[in-house]
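Our consortium's second objective concerns turning raw sequence data into structural hypotheses that experimental partners can test. To show how far this objective has progressed, the report includes one record in full. It was chosen at random from the queue rather than selected for favorable results. The single chain below, 107 residues long, was entered without modification.
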Amino acid sequence: MRQKPRAGEIWIADLGTTGKIRPVLVLYYPKPDDSRMLAIVAPITSQIRGGDGEYDITHIKWLPKPSAINFQGLGSIDRHSLSRKLGTLPKNDLNEVKSNLRNLLNL
């Protein structure tokens, strides 16, 4: 049986024609009885620009390239678009991501 993604994990995902295949941070993964089978993800980019719309994760060495989480690219994707787990974001980074998202979205 295929492993189910969990919030805080980084997976390879097919983001379609405009987003290509790239790592994403899983923020939400649907339960089996969920009527919409969509995962909410934030793409990970190696084109680091800085600013409030990104969270730097260059210190994570198991990623293929120095990278940042791109909050401005938040989106929903079909859960089957997630193909392979790369790893889990460290807890302190995940807490920072949550805090930054709350501030960015005024929540």
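The partners drew two points from this record. The domain at 9-104 is CATH 2.30.30.110 (SH3 type barrels.). The chain has two helices and seven strands. Both points have been shared with the crystallography group to help prioritize constructs.
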